[in-house]
Automatic annotation (TrEMBL):
Pfam families: DUF892. The lineage of its organism: Bacteria, Pseudomonadati, Pseudomonadota, Gammaproteobacteria, Lysobacterales. This is Ferritin-like domain-containing protein. InterPro entries: DUF892_YciF-like, Ferritin-like, Ferritin-like_SF. It comes from the Bacteria. It comes from Luteimonas endophytica.
Amino acid sequence: MSTSTRERLLKWLQDAYAMEQQADAMLTALAGRLEHYTSLRNRVLGHAAETRQQADDVRGCIERLGGAVPAARSMAASAAGSLQALGNALMSDEVVKGMGASYAFEYLEAATYRALVIAAEAAGETDIAEVCNRILQQELAMAEWLRANHGGIVQEFLQREPDAPGLARR
Ligand SMILES: [Fe+2]
């Protein structure tokens, strides 16, 4: 294993840890605005809990490599930052916008962990590869749930709020 592969693995784990901090904040904020959409709210809350466990597991991987755990924001967080800003600025069609943002974000997370699995295997860190693969499956499961339920939620929104300003302007 080269030093650079190990260093890259550590850096990507630190990025992933920061990403999970943002994910938790975004999911929790989104869940608070979904009182009329029970199934989506429950799935989002469930994934927020899953996300906190993922952050703990990634922290363990960082410590295993002897790295520093990021304090708060870092580079990976900036990708999520725009989504969080969207979460903060959601208007009457927040459920549609928030679900779309979450859908995109879960695939960003999945891609992050797929890269981490490959990097961990390249570095000979099989335990870390296993952790990242387990998280990858959770991200894909959340992405698939959002994909499968997206159309139904949009239809429910249109029936519930036919005169929503966000749509009336189109
Ligand atoms: Fe996720």
